């Protein structure tokens, strides 16, 4: 099962914390170095690069990863729904209820619905042939009983 977007172990969220932590610690260290008499251009350059990196990560990478998480979650949800429909259809088939089996099969996606419907129709034809032959056998048995 897919982890929730708000889950703390979400990889995109962990990456966001890492990028923010590196930017903050780098700026803090450069501020300390500047306060000790160092030049200020490394601080300004790092501030520019860390701001660009944060914007890139949060604006592009983090958002696309969150969208991917939600797409995977919706895909898994739809697959579970299809699986439930398929299980219900197979249960109806196992019970011998070909009419409800075919009705449930119509809810399946595309080719699966067509294939399952064709299989149910073939089983229906087979059941009708068995029933007709059973009627013929019963009629023959009645004829034999009448003769005897």
Structure, explained:
By secondary structure, the chain is an all-alpha fold. The chain contains four helices and no strands. Helix 1 runs antiparallel to helix 2, helix 2 packs antiparallel against helix 3 and helix 3 runs antiparallel to helix 4. 5% of the residues are buried. The mean pLDDT is 83.
> How many runs of DSSP E, i.e. beta strands?
0
Oligomer: single chain
Return the structural class.
mainly alpha
Portion in beta strands: under 5%
* Spatial gap, N to C terminus: 69 Å
Order of helices and strands: HHHH
Overall, the morphology is rod-shaped
Please work out how many helical segments DSSP would assign.
4
- Helix content percent band: over 70%
- Major beta-sheet overview: none
Mean pLDDT: 83
- Uncertain regions spanning at least 5 consecutive residues: none
Radius of gyration: 34 Å
Give the key terms.
148 residues, mainly alpha, 0% strand
Write a short abstract of this structure.
The chain is mostly helical and 148 residues long. It is built from 4 helices and no strands.
Provide the fold topology:
Layout: H1 11-35, H2 41-95, H3 98-105, H4 110-147
Helix pairs in contact: 1-2, 2-3, 3-4
């Amino acid at each position: 099962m897919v982890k929730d977007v708000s889950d703390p172990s979400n990889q995109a969220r962990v990456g966001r914390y890492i990028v923010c932590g590196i930017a903050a610690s780098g700026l803090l260290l450069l501020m300390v170095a500047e306060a000790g008499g160092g030049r200020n251009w490394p601080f300004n350059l790092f501030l520019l690069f860390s701001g660009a990196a944060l914007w890139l990560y949060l604006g592009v990478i983090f958002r696309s990863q969150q969208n991917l998480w939600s797409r995977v979650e919706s895909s898994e949800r739809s697959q579970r729904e299809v699986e439930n429909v398929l299980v219900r259809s197979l249960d109806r088939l196992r019970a011998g209820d070909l009419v409800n089996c075919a009705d449930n099969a119509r809810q399946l996606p595309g080719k699966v619905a067509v294939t399952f419907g064709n299989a149910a129709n073939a089983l229906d034809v087979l059941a009708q042939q068995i029933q007709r032959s059973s009627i013929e056998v019963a009629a023959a048995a009645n004829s034999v009983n009448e003769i005897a």
